[in-house]
Design goal:
11 helices, transmembrane, globular, about 300 residues, MetI-like_sf, MetI-like fold
Amino acid sequence: MDAVQLREAIKSRKRADLIFAAAGFLALLVGLVTLLALLVDLAVDGTARLRPEFFTSFPSRFAEQAGILSAWVGSCLVMLVTATAAVPLGVSAGIYLEEYAPKNWFTEIIEVNITNLAGVPSIIFGLMALGLFVYGLGLGESILTAGLTLALLILPIVIVATRESLRAVPDSIREAAYALGATRWQMVSDHILPYSTGGILTGIIIGLSRAIGETAPLITIGALTFIAFLPDLPLRAEFPFFSFQWLSSGFTVLPIQMFNWVSRPQAAFQLNAAAAGLVLIAMTLGMNALAIYLRYSFRKRIKW
């Protein structure tokens, strides 16, 4: 290849890079504009309903008196059960598969199935939970059943994110730990996990963000569309200070409450649904902000 052909080849590749960058920027712009339009539309419709009584009132057949108290409390309690069940189990499974499990055909089958489960439609998990938790274990249509259902839904996401974060840590760190006489668990807990915590937290928040907006599996297991009571509080003023009765209580969540309002013909209920959508977005952004803060804290600790 002479100098002229080389220059033409370089120019051609630069043009291709420029076209690809422009196409990627255009795709990003379309997504951002669409998201911004949806957020603006929700804000225009629902901001007027974001008053204190909207958060402290139960649902009502009168749109002006309806609120999301039972829905946002139910969402918080269900997400508490989901995080408590999915995070320790998912992170532990990811650590075992990446750092401890032997590399053979059996673990390869497990890895393939975990990856496939991450893409299974959520309604399938709802049907499985209906047979396993509601009828099989007799847990009923409760907060515990809802939390375990969503935990199964996001468990593959947490496992895959944990494995990818561990895999991103250079092998030289593992070898250095072994060279200093560390056991495998000391190597994982003192060296690998601190460097991979940021990625693990990101995967956890992605999973929880998906779970908080799910509707189909919760409707399948019998979530209520109208509820005018709150479950017992997890904390009490008297000994033993903890109560688990709330786990067996009926529930509703914000996405189901929004679905109930959107299905009504009155325009006022559409405004309530828009306001509930803003609250749901705020809760999701709050979880992401917490993940960013924790990730920054862990990285700062590593630098020191």
